[in-house]
Write a structure and sequence with these properties.
With 206 residues, this protein is α+β, with helices and mostly antiparallel strands. The chain has four helices and twelve strands; from the N terminus they run E-H-E-E-E-H-E-H-E-E-E-E-H-E-E-E. It has an eight-stranded mixed beta sheet with strand order 2-3-4-1-5-8-7-6.
């Protein structure tokens, strides 16, 4: 199973607030993404290069706050590093490989419409998330193009540092996923993100 970083997520309850903050911090205006039907969320996007990107994710006021992610976002008053995702070629094979490594996994299908009217569809693989969002999920884009190819650029990702109050608990799972990253001790679970932007360095904590 070959994995590559696909995207990082920065969340807040309100998308307009999140987009305005990002543009003020970086000088880059994120592109409108779309809504995730059934999940209660919507997003905006910024490319980090040809094959990875930033997803700014927040509540969708047109939907109920029903999913665990939406409930987490509802509590956020400030931009927060929420999660990170790795790209895989086949969600089914990736799930089988992770189960063989002794991990509990579940799959989910998602889709959203773009402002241009294109329907994007993809599959996700979630690993046992007892340690929280320090544990990344996997995404299989199937035949849909990555948002990295069309979102505005100008920002580069310098570092992703997984953080957790009890690093060994999370490190065991990352090692089983064959993700080469060292978990550091921090007050909350999640990835600490460091970017280089036209306005200088930007760091976002979990």
């Amino acid at each position: 199973m070959q994995l590559a970083l696909d995207h990082v997520l920065i969340g807040c309850a309100d998308l307009a607030t999140l987009v305005q903050w990002f543009e003020q911090q970086t000088g880059i205006a994120p592109a409108v993404g779309g809504s995730h039907a059934g999940f209660g969320t919507r997003n905006a996007l910024v490319s980090l290069g040809r094959d990875h990107y930033i997803e700014l994710i927040a509540l969708d006021p047109a939907q109920e706050i029903s999913s665990p992610l939406a409930k987490s976002l509802a509590k956020l008053e400030h931009p927060t590093a929420m999660w990170w995702a790795f790209r895989c070629d086949d969600a089914g094979r990736a799930s089988a490989s992770l189960r063989d490594a002794g991990l509990k996994v579940r799959e989910a299908a998602m889709q959203r419409g773009t402002p241009a009217g294109t329907l994007l569809s993809w599959r996700l693989v979630f690993v046992d998330d007892t340690p929280g969002p320090v544990i990344p999920f996997l995404i299989d884009w199937q035949k849909s193009p990555s948002p990295a190819a069309t979102a505005p650029g100008g920002v580069s990702l310098q570092n992703v540092t997984p953080m957790h109050p009890d690093p060994p608990e999370a490190q065991i799972i990352l090692d089983a996923m064959r993700i080469r990253a060292t978990v550091l001790k921090g007050p909350r679970s999640g990835p600490r993100l460091e970017f280089s932007t036209p306005k200088g360095k930007l760091e976002v904590a979990p």
